[in-house]
Amino acid sequence: METVNQLQEEFVKNASYRMDESLRMVKICLDQLSEEVIWKKPNMSTNSIGNLILHLCGNITQYGIASLQHLDDQRNRDEEFAISAGYDRTALLQKLEATVEEAKSVFKEVPVSELLKKRSVQGFTFSGIGNIVHVVEHFSYHTGQIALWTKILNNKDLGFYSGIDLTVKNE
Questions:
Q1: Most CB within 10 Å of its CB: which of 105, 124, 126, 151?
Q2: Where are the domains of the chain?
Q3: pLDDT in tens, 85-118
Q4: Which fold has domain 2-154?
Q5: What's the domain of life for this entry (predicted)?
């Protein structure tokens, strides 16, 4: 049982780290944007940064919180993309931070049996581990979109890794 607990702790620790990294990057982007451009769409086939943040909150809640805790699925996915105002930078960031913190808490507290149990979310069947992997990769995917749109808007490097030597070789 000790090995199972260690494996669970290591998995949750790494999932939480990756979520914190995505959150850190989204914060950096928001800090470099004016309020006016947060709801701007590059074109009609894409989403604004505001929509992407609301979408992330919905997805993290659906997969990482409600599903793992057997709560009613209250998500209105279409609304995440239909909203075009009403949240400023601070409100969006607070909503995302609260959602991420709640999900990380759920990940930490969920029993191993729930990590292994299969469940259906959005018509897909995953284990609890699969749901957590989905949350992490989905957050990362949209963080990349937010970063790209921010780079396009500002025409400059975002400084995600300023002061860190990324050329260090593996040991």
A1: 126
A2: 2-154
A3: 899 999 999 999 999 999 999 999 999 999 999 9
A4: Four Helix Bundle (Hemerythrin (Met), subunit A) (1.20.120)
A5: Bacteria
